[in-house]
Specification:
The chain is α+β, with helices and mostly antiparallel strands. About 50% of the residues lie in helices and about 20% in strands. It has helices spanning about 10, 30-40, 50, 65-70, 110-160, 165-195, 205-225, 245-260, 310-320, 325-335, 370-385, 390-395, 405-420, 425-435, 445-460, 460-480; strands spanning about 15-20, 25-30, 75-80, 85-95, 100-105, 205, 230-235, 240-245, 265-280, 280-290, 340-345, 350-360. The strands form three sheets. A five-stranded antiparallel beta sheet has the order 2-1-5-4-3. The chain has a five-stranded mixed beta sheet with strand order 7-9-10-12-11, with helices on both faces. A two-stranded antiparallel sheet has the order 6-8. The structure holds adenosine-5'-diphosphate.
């Protein structure tokens, strides 16, 4: 930009200050904004940029060369007015005609003020949060003592009382105390988690024993409600793992209690898979399915927020603090995992979460299978959503033999074999069905191969399915080549 390129009339409309000076710093031109900000009146001659911007002086108070101040990068510096008051300014210096420099600056006092306000407010909020968390921790701790006192005395009485009416009342007190203790634990966990004072234990334990314990503790309540309860652990899940057993139990207890609480007909299922392995770390994937009241799509986003119960009338009927899922989410994340929920109103909900645990060195395998199983498991999930609903449309659009058709078959076959590897026969069968829909007008040998595959999947015959799969792929590649 040349000095003579500055049109004073236009420059007077600029929102920034424009100051032109010589290489000795003496000001030769200021636009209207600069004159106003610096308090120069109509004339700016006789002023010097070094007295406006002390940042243009070196440590000893000597002027830096204007040449050295030239930069593309705006700097936040202090600017002095004639009356010696100051303001924060974002300024940039560039060279104009030979021997002339232009300083463009913007008064950012308001921005600085707001920044300070926000930072002060942030500190105040943090301080208030800390006080609140400590208060909650103290109160809940103090509450536990009397509740345990009542609980202990009630149990003592229960062991001596014989009158059935009294036993009924004492049992009610006992149950109420246990509920109260659960609520206190939730609040305590929540306040510790929010204060960052929560640590996980790391101990070796038998995973299947732990799941048996969880199963036993929920079975009676689930059976009482006339529901079916299925628990399945994929064979690849290690027997012994290292992690925080109590907290894993807590996560499962919360999800299973919710599933039981919100389901009145049908089933509750818990499935566990190993989905990845890196060194001695293993990713476990848990799915808790129920056929209960379900959750509206719009409510899914509030599910994991603290104190949130999706529907006030539901919480009145079912009770609860609305902290369970938030605590669960935080625990899952502390264990390096994620938690998700899929649900349909009146059909049921599926909560799934992953966690990373360690395996003892003697259980270590040689190879990492992170890429194989971890990614593929997601692929199964994705693919499941892609599964076609009916075959007319699919068959019509994807006639056998087209490039799109063959690649779709290959894709579904690979998902199928993955489900087989993970012993998920139910899903494998769904993929077999979906492949069948794509070979309606295929040559007889391909249709027969599909039938074989489906039959063997139904029989859960691992070896035969693998063999059929290989055979099928060969047909496809022959077909492509020929
Ligand atoms: P609470 O301790 O009150 O049960 P949670 O955080 O565990 O709180 O659950 C919050 C809310 O999420 C519940 O009040 C309920 O509305 C909804 N919810 C949780 N799990 C389920 C489920 N399996 N089916 C239907 N709704 C559920």
């Amino acid at each position: 930009m040349k000095l003579d390129a500055i049109n004073p009339e236009i420059a007077d409309y600029a929102l920034e200050m424009i100051i032109v000076c010589k290489d000795d710093g003496s000001i030769t031109y200021t636009n209207k904004k600069a004159r106003k900000e610096l308090g120069y009146g109509d004339e700016s001659e006789g002023h010097n940029v070094y007295s406006v911007f002390p940042a243009f002086l070196d440590d000893t108070g000597h002027p830096k060369k204007m040449e050295d101040l030239v930069s593309d990068d705006p700097k936040d510096i202090i600017a002095y007015r004639v009356n010696k008051t100051l303001f924060h300014c974002r300024a940039v210096v560039f060279k104009s005609n030979p021997g002339f420099f232009v300083v463009m600056g913007l008064n950012i006092s308001q921005e600085e003020f707001l920044k300070r306000e926000i930072s002060n407010a942030g500190e105040e909020v943090q301080e208030a949060d800390k006080v609140k968390t400590e208060f909650v921790a103290n109160v809940t701790h103090e509450l536990r003592t009397p509740v345990n006192g009542i609980l202990g005395s009630t149990r003592d009485l229960l062991s001596v009382v014989t009158d059935s009416e009294q036993i009924k009342k004492l049992t009610l007190i006992e149950k109420s105390c246990e509920n109260m203790n659960n609520i206190i634990s939730s609040i305590l966990d929540f306040s510790k988690l929010s204060a960052g004072k929560f640590t996980l234990e790391s101990r070796e334990f038998n995973f299947r024993d732990m799941i048996d314990y969880v199963k036993e503790s929920h079975s009676s309540r689930i059976n009482e409600k006339g529901l079916n309860f299925f628990v399945s652990i994929s064979p690849e899940v290690p027997d012994v793992i290292i992690g925080d057993e109590l907290r894993i139990v807590q996560i499962l207890n919360n999800l299973l209690s919710n599933a039981t609480k919100f389901t009145s007909v049908g089933k509750i299922a818990l499935e566990i898979f190993k989905t990845a392995r890196v060194g001695n770390k293993v990713e476990l994937f848990f799915i808790v399915v129920d056929s209960g009241i379900g959750i509206e799509k719009a409510d899914l986003s509030k599910l994991f927020k603290s104190f949130s119960q999706v529907d006030a009338s539901i919480s009145r009927n079912f009770g609860g603090t609305g902290l369970g899922l938030n605590i669960t989410k935080q625990l899952v994340e502390m264990m390096g995992g994620v938690i998700e929920c899929e649900s349909e109103k009146n059909k049921g909900s599926t909560f799934s979460f992953s966690i990373w645990v360690e395996v003892p060195s003697e259980e270590e395998e040689e190879e990492d299978d992170f890429d194989d199983v971890g990614e593929d498991f997601e692929a199964i999930e994705e693919a499941e959503e892609e599964l076609p609903e009916g075959n007319e449309e699919e068959g019509g659009i994807k006639a056998f033999g087209s490039e799109e058709n063959i690649s779709e078959i290959e894709k579904r076959l690979s998902k199928l074999i993955l489900c087989v590897e993970m012993q998920n026969w139910e899903r494998a069968e769904m993929f077999a069905d979906s492949v069948k829909q794509l070979v309606d007008n295929a040559p007889k040998e391909v249709r027969t191969a599909t039938l074989h595959l489906k039959m063997n999947v139904q029989k859960e015959n691992y070896d035969k399915v693998v063999e059929d799969y290989g055979q099928f792929l060969k047909y496809l590649s022959d077909y492509k080549e020929g």
